[in-house]
Write a structure and sequence with these properties.
Elements: H1 5-17, H2 20-27, H3 38-61, H4 64-85, H5 90-118, H6 120-123, H7 129-159, H8 164-170, H9 172-186, H10 192-197, H11 199-276, H12 279-292, H13 305-320, E1 324-328, H14 339-358, E2 366-374, E3 377-385, H15 408-419, E4 423-429, E5 432-440
Parallel strand pairs: 1-2
Antiparallel strand pairs: 2-3, 3-5, 4-5
Helix pairs in contact: 1-3, 1-7, 3-4, 5-7, 5-8, 5-9, 5-11, 7-11, 9-11, 11-12, 11-14, 11-15, 13-14, 14-15
């Protein structure tokens, strides 16, 4: 028997209201990372919305034993569309989906609880207009502020290219709260409707979501702060490059000025030798003068300007500290990597190696740099001698000798390597600390 049109309309409106706002909120943080164009994504979303309406109607008029299967199919369709539409780390998308699922559950329970207080006769029925109207009102109260938060805070945290390993575990936070809600709803022995109609349960779920949202906010702020520290680290190394260029230019200007100042005296003496016919003394003086001239160029370790500048600087620092400095390989002028990223990688690895050598008391102090291109991959290694034992946290990450916590420099290198689809590996062998970075350019 065909159900009445008003019932089809009630269920269809509810299905759309329970799907489209959350889909929009879930896609918004990844609007610049969609797998398809925005037009194609909207068309697919419209198709999925029609399928959700059909599944909602099927669930409403199907036998009780089939409702669970239809509901699971609806959830699976939503997840499948979302993961196929967004191009981001699975941990990010799963964190976002579970976070919004928890909020969606809160909206449904609060709406049903209000319906039970205002329309008790309709509340025991499924998907009536009273429930849809109250759910729209609850959504306006909760989802509008949530959208502003996602736009101003959460999107910024998601956009940051934090270390992928962080997102492998962060999604467990909303998953834990989801399991708490699931257990509270179905573990009591009561039906979902009876649980939702009790104000105490709605209040309990509200408290759970408030606590969860506080943790979400802390996570978002920590991620933003973490990435801001990475950006500051990059800026510091760019300032180091600019300072090195300024110092080199200043030295060249001073050398030129000294040479210009002394040149007239040399010319006067050479003119006197020439007038007196003392050609042998003139030739000897010219040879001596030529050997006293400063080098007209700095040491050239490779064709890449940024790498050569840093290698030249740390080579001088290592020489002053009494450490050997060897360079093998020649990096090409164009590496296909941002100058700031290359500066952070080389600057941190060479600085750590130099500090380790300066902390040694023995005479065997050595820094070895190797760099080469293999196909579309850049491989850089920095090995240095060291004394003592490396300090590591329980997860195996190296601890800084300067700050006591995790080394920010190596974290910056690991962060950049992850953005290029590469990795950072550190190990100790034969009295040497070896740091290797692989980037896919």
């Amino acid at each position: 028997m065909m159900p009445p049109f008003y019932r089809i309309l009630e269920i269809s409106v509810y299905s759309l209201l329970n799907f489209l706002p959350y889909l929009f909120l879930a896609l918004y943080p990844f609007r610049e990372h969609l797998r398809y164009s925005r037009q194609a994504t909207c068309m697919l979303a419209a198709l999925v919305a029609l399928l959700q309406m059909a599944l909602g109607l099927l669930a409403s008029f199907s036998p009780t034993d089939r409702k669970g299967f239809v509901s699971a199919s609806s959830t699976a369709l939503y997840f499948l569309f979302y993961f196929c539409s967004v191009r981001a780390h699975p941990g990010k998308t799963l964190f976002t989906l579970l976070m919004l699922s928890n909020i969606g559950n809160l909206v449904v329970v609060c709406s049903k609880c209000l319906e039970g207080q205002i329309f008790p006769g309709l509340a025991v029925q499924t998907y009536r207009w009273s429930f849809t109207v109250l759910m729209a009102a609850v959504q306006a109260v909760i989802l509008i502020p949530l959208f502003l938060y996602i736009r101003n805070v959460y999107s910024d945290a998601v956009e940051k290219e934090a270390d992928a390993s962080i997102w492998r575990y962060l999604w467990l936070i909303p998953a834990t709260f989801y399991l708490l809600w699931f257990y509270h709803l179905y573990g009591s022995g009561q039906s979902g409707l009876d649980v939702a109609l009790q104000p105490a349960n709605a209040l309990f779920l509200l408290c759970i979501n408030l606590g969860a949202f506080l943790i979400y906010h802390i996570v978002a702020r920590l991620l933003s702060e973490y990435c801001r520290n990475m950006e500051l680290e990059q800026q510091n190394h760019m300032l180091l490059l600019e300072n090195l260029q300024y110092v080199n230019l200043k030295d060249r200007i001073q050398e030129t000025r000294r040479a210009e100042h002394d040149l007239r005296h040399h010319m006067a003496l050479m003119a006197a030798y020439l007038e007196d016919g003392e050609y042998d003394r003139l030739r000897a003086y010219l040879d001596e003068y030529r050997s006293s001239l400063p080098e007209d160029s700095q040491a050239v370790f490779c064709r890449n300007h940024t790498a050569n500048l840093l290698l030249s600087y740390f080579a001088r620092q290592a020489t002053d500290a009494g450490a050997g400095f060897a360079v093998y390989g020649n990096l090409p002028a164009n590496l296909g990597i941002a100058e700031s990223d290359l500066s952070v990688i080389l600057g941190n690895l060479l600085e750590n190696a130099l500090q380790a050598c300066m902390a040694q008391e023995g005479s065997r102090r050595q820094i070895v740099f190797r760099g080469k291109m293999e196909g579309q991959c850049l491989l850089v290694t920095v090995d240095n001698t060291f004394e003592g034992e490396l300090r590591q946290d329980p997860n195996g990450a190296l601890l800084s000798t300067k700050r006591g916590g995790s080394g920010l420099g190596l974290e910056s290198v690991r962060h950049i390597a992850a953005r290029y689809g590469g990795m950072l590996r550190t190990e100790c062998r034969d009295g040497m600390f070896c740091a290797s970075v692989l980037l896919k350019l």
